[in-house]
Specification:
Blueprint: H1 2-5, H2 19-30, E1 48-53, H3 59-68, E2 72-77, E3 90-95, H4 112-115, E4 121-124, H5 126-134, E5 138-140, E6 146-154, E7 168-175, E8 178-181, E9 186-191, E10 199-202, E11 206-209, H6 221-232, H7 241-256, E12 261-265, H8 269-282, E13 286-292, H9 300-311, E14 316-320, H10 322-328, H11 335-357, E15 362-364, H12 369-380, E16 402-404, H13 412-421, H14 426-429, H15 449-468, E17 477-491, E18 494-507, E19 515-516, H16 521-534, E20 538-543
Parallel strand pairs: 1-2, 1-3, 3-4, 4-11, 12-13, 12-15, 13-14, 15-16, 18-20
Antiparallel strand pairs: 5-8, 6-7, 6-9, 9-10, 10-11, 17-18, 18-19
This protein binds xanthosine-5'-monophosphate.
Length: 556
């Protein structure tokens, strides 16, 4: 994962004389955790919020909400002293929720550097209970479970945390333990029917909420977070896509010097944004390689070349390796085998092309912040492998390239904003995700030129009709699958015996879970009728109504 090769790996932050920081960094490195990398940050992050992670499933969501308020933030482990992140100019701390009870053996605790109250702090759920527990208040164990909607009533008029909000507002609760007595110096700022102290605060700007302001079920929660950031922490909101572009270009120039950078383009949003940003910064010191593995959608190779080579003027090497990939996949039907073969062949082709370019110093990658945060969890959990995702990037070590990852601290929606700020067309910026192994994992059974041709035809119709119905941006993904089943049909007066094609359309926020999209019947009718008319190999169309879980988004 990105952690092992990150540019900041091993780079120490303000360690001089700070034994606690050195100790923390040493342990973090041993555990494979991300080590703070001050050089990766643009200047607009000169004000930052840190989110201390107590294992909540919502920590990412808190981070996204803060970024949506145009304030830079990072998620940090609860074991970290604040001084390990002193390069961030921390304006405030948010303590996340978490699954523990403060009474659990080994329950995570708030670092003493936060409890001193030198920067404004906001505890959420477990973060509130930990604050109460560690500062001498009382937490009742497990007797007051509260899951779901509640109404919060403010106890004090005109508190800055609730600026602009009504005196009663709907909030979302999800807790077992409950703060029953606030620590000395704190007072209750709000209550619900079941939580007499649903909000508390002291004069040192330490606040806590029993409910979750970050979830959509607390409709005014973003305003509470925004009040905390702007009215209490004094943030200015300099984190914008435009600033990011300007400052990243400067950093890329400093990092690369007169070196040469290589970038693998997949046609997806992330690699396109990375390539465009780096090209803007260093021009022809960047060479991009775009491998056509023969598994792309109709007109995709032309579109990528048109956007990046002809329109943006990138130095782009186009390699048509269709024959090679198809012969490598001959006779292969197992999905995992397909992925492995495609991944291996991609590296072969890419490396061969890269050596033709001459000396290269850096490899540009579209690593995003969720990959950075999740890598540690993924590495440390013994979860069953559902699919081995193949992504551009796992290149052999002997190529000896340093990594450059300008999007390493961005969420996907921020990448899109950066794409727009770079002037990329909307159809590129809002393109639905497309898997690395391409159409190969949407053809059940063997991948052949004829079956690819049939699937491209079906896919074309699905895209066309989804776009015509103005549904493209609403859907996370929409595509066709060529099944291995045949069925009997009748066309004109003749019997047909053709493939069954499936249409899949899902809504999702992050691809971890997904729901099948309730497409309008008339859109489905048009798709079905056009596919059987335009794709001679197919005579029946079905619609996939499986959510994830238990299904996955792709069929293989
Ligand atoms: P699943 O099918 O696991 O897909 O629900 C979740 C998301 O990941 C994409 N996907 C892949 N992406 N290489 C990729 O780069 C892969 O092997 C791969 N398999 C699935 C899928 O399109 C969806 O967005």
């Amino acid at each position: 994962m990105a952690e092992t090769t990150a540019p900041g790996k091993g780079r120490r932050v303000s360690t001089s004389g700070d034994v606690e920081v050195s100790k923390y960094l040493e342990t973090a490195e041993k555990k494979g955790e991300a080590v703070p990398d001050p050089t990766a940050l643009p200047k607009s992050s000169d004000e930052a919020i840190v989110i201390v992670d107590f294992g909540s499933q919502y920590s990412h969501l808190i981070a996204r909400r803060v970024r949506e308020c145009h304030v830079y933030c990072e998620i940090i482990p609860h074991t970290a002293p604040l001084s390990a992140f002193s390069h961030l100019n921390i304006k405030g701390v948010i303590l996340s929720g978490g699954p523990s009870s403060v009474y659990d053996k080994g329950a995570p605790t708030i670092h003493s550097s936060i409890l001193e109250g030198r920067v404004p702090t906001l505890g959420i759920c477990y973060g509130m209970q930990a604050l109460a527990h560690q500062l001498g208040g009382k937490v009742a164990l497990g007797q007051h479970r509260e899951y779901g909607h509640a109404v919060l009533h403010q106890s004090t008029a005109k508190h800055p945390l609730f600026d602009g909000l009504p005196s009663s507002l709907p909030v979302w609760m999800s807790h077992g333990d409950l703060v029953t007595e606030a620590p000395s110096g704190f007072r209750s700022l709000g209550y619900t029917e079941n939580s007499p102290i649903a909000v508390m605060g002291n004069s040192k700007n330490i606040f806590a909420l029993q409910f979750h302001p970050e979830v959509a079920h607390t409709p005014l929660g973003k305003q509470i977070l925004e009040n905390f950031l702007y009215k209490i922490c004094g943030c200015h909101g300099a984190w914008t896509a435009g600033n990011f572009v300007e400052e990243s270009m400067q950093r890329i120039r400093e990092q690369v010097g007169d070196g040469r950078v290589l970038c693998a383009l997949s046609g997806g949003v992330d690699s396109t944004v990375v390539a465009t940003l780096i090209h803007k910064a260093i021009g022809d010191q960047l060479t991009c390689i775009f491998v056509n593995n023969g598994l792309l959608r109709r007109e995709e190779p032309e579109r990528v070349q048109d956007t990046l080579k002809r329109r943006a003027g990138l130095n782009l090497l186009y390699v048509d390796a269709t024959e090679e990939f198809l012969s490598g996949l001959k006779g292969v039907t197992d999905p995992e085998q397909k992925r492995k073969i495609i991944g291996r062949m991609f590296i072969d082709v890419f490396e061969r092309q890269a050596t033709r370019i001459g000396k290269v110093d850096f490899l540009a990658q579209g690593t995003l912040y969720p990959d950075v945060i999740e890598s540690k969890t993924k590495e440390n959990t013994t979860s069953v492998t559902i699919k081995t995702h193949h992504n551009v990037g796992g290149l052999p070590e002997h190529m000896n390239l340093k990594l450059i990852e300008p999007l390493r601290y961005l969420f996907k929606d921020e990448v899109r904003e950066v794409g727009l700020a770079l002037g990329l067309p909307e159809d590129v910026v809002f393109r639905q995700p497309f898997p690395g192994p391409g159409l190969a994992i949407r053809i059940i059974g063997e991948v052949t030129a004829d079956r690819l041709d049939a699937l491209r035809g079906c896919d074309w119709v699905v895209m066309d009709e989804i776009k015509a119905a103005n549904l493209y941006r609403e859907l996370w993904q929409s595509f066709a699958v060529l099944t291995s089943s045949h069925s009997v049909g009748v066309m004109g007066d003749n019997r047909t015996y053709g493939y069954v094609a499936a249409v899949r359309a899902v809504t999702s926020d992050d691809a971890m879970t997904a729901d099948w999209a309730r497409l309008p019947y008339d859109v489905l009718a048009k798709i079905s009728s056009r596919i059987v008319n335009e794709v001679p190999q197919v005579n029946r169309v079905v619609y996939d109504i499986t959510s994830k879980p238990p299904g996955t988004i792709e069929w293989e």
